[in-house]
Amino acid sequence: MRNPKLCHMWTDANLLVGIALVLTLTGCMTHYGHFSLDARVRQAFQAGSVQPEFQYYYTGRETMPYAIIGIDRGYTVPSRYWIPFSPRPDQLKAMSANIYREIRDLPYGAYILDPAGQTIGIWYSNVFNRNVTVDQARRKVQVLYKNPENKDRPR
């Protein structure tokens, strides 16, 4: 014969553990976006095509950036490493032509996607060790990458 009080306690404990597990996994999985390589993004940067729906940022030196991103204006990029700027087409073209190239010669373009797969930005660089986190509630995007001039510490 089952003890109803014991069964009720067991069910409550399982329920709490289950809820905690789901919340933990959901919290971990929903904040990561990803990159989708696309030659059209590379071509747009190289042509100096400024897209008004994006706020542009660069990191590194303005004359030789490590990377350039454009992020949907509905988001912020709270990082001291990403410098906001409003590029002119000739400026974006010149910066794209002089991207930091110690890693490899051919920079690439990619769409930056949120966890649901929606485009929230664009990326241009030759750094492959990168990731993106998205806080949808606060509308913040963090694009992290390994600094190409300091191979020991990620940025």
TrEMBL record:
Q: What is this protein called?
A: Lipoprotein
The upper taxonomy is: Bacteria, Pseudomonadati, Thermodesulfobacteriota, Desulfobacteria, Desulfobacterales
